[in-house]
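User: quick one, sequence for these tokens?
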């Protein structure tokens, strides 16, 4: 993230079931969320039954610096998030996700109003999954 976000900007990085302009209306997701005029790295998960939004990971991002974000969904009852190798202080449960409910890589930048232009540079994406 090139600069600290303003109060009307948000970014999500992770996985989602479908596109929706209202992020909280997406039926299923597992992602990092950056929102508003702070440096908090939030974590979220929604499995269609349990919706966990805006959980502070206990980690802050540094604007203008590269970071490595990792989501480990090996155990759906305890999805782990880490930034630059530092694990978030909380986990998210999305245990109602099933094999028939597919999630896809999802990156979204939104702005409600104003002229501020923040950019996001993605250098590398690696996704590993079992079959």
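Assistant:
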């Amino acid at each position: 993230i090139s600069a600290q976000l303003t109060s009307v900007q948000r970014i999500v990085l992770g996985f989602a079931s479908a596109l929706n302009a209202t992020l909280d209306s997406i039926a299923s997701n597992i992602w990092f969320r950056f929102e508003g005029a702070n440096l908090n790295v939030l974590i979220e998960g929604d499995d269609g039954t349990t919706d966990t939004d805006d959980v502070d990971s206990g980690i802050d991002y540094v604007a203008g610096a590269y970071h490595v974000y990792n989501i480990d969904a090996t155990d759906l009852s305890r999805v782990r998030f880490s930034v630059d190798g530092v694990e978030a202080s909380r986990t998210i449960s999305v245990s109602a996700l099933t094999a028939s409910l597919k999630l896809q890589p999802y990156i979204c930048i939104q702005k409600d109003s104003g002229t501020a232009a923040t950019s996001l540079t993605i250098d590398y994406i690696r996704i590993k999954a079992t079959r």
